[in-house]
């Protein structure tokens, strides 16, 4: 498909106007809002995820927000480098090149370490870390050819700046993404390709429904969904997406979102022993693992939600009710309230 030359050459109305962008994990949650922000700023956007039906709903959402916008979708498993190569080639063919890439695909596993096995760590590394590696390596030839200079954003997490209890597979993979972003930033400076490391704290994206829960699944679901939606702790996801795309637009090397995440990252950098001790104290108030010692299959938040409402202790039920209202609302808006497949955060 040959792009319209009018689209690529129309007068510039901003740094991103007329550029071609790719967002992996873009069918729901934060990824969907990042695609929306890129579209609003004049990009032609290719949204990639594993689930075709989810992608169809994402396209409808984006075109409602931006009628007439240039949006295409692509089914892609980011753990498969050949599939990512095909994704980038298709986006370049459709829109005359690639100028912006956001690697956002991820999975979240919430469980004590006694309730996860090596498969959970491998899944997190394959999707979060290798997914970012594949996106970066396959995008680079196109980003190097971008006339204004390419922009690459890797979505990490505060969980990649310090280890978060009951999120160890996620934290380990996000830590690897943080190192990848820093290394690419240093090595690509001479190639006119900017690399932005993005480390959000908790955001109201509805991710509690797509996350996987182990151990005492109802209790794990309760604390995670409550904190991820608590107004004083978490951040509005659309505001977060706006700040992330602004950082990419301005070629900032690093952005950390939410005051709590900034404080945690700074404290860990200055006094890592202190934050490690505080994490150990946090474990004492998190749900205890089941006594059997057997690792059982983790279940998605969609499956755990109903059980949690029935089985939770009244105190935990009130905690979930207090913190998760805004997050449940975000889930309905951001394509999370349906059958999940590995996609965005």
Automatic annotation (TrEMBL):
SMART domains: PKS_KR. It comes from the Bacteria. Residues 19-201 form the Ketoreductase domain. The keyword Calcium does not apply. Gene3D superfamilies: NAD(P)-binding Rossmann-like Domain. It holds the Pfam family adh_short. Keywords: Oxidoreductase. InterPro entries: KR_dom, NAD(P)-bd_dom_sf, Sc_DH/Rdtase_CS, SDR_fam. The keyword Oxidoreductase applies. Belongs to the short-chain dehydrogenases/reductases (SDR) family. This is SDR family NAD(P)-dependent oxidoreductase. The lineage of its organism: Bacteria, Bacillati, Actinomycetota, Actinomycetes, Kitasatosporales.
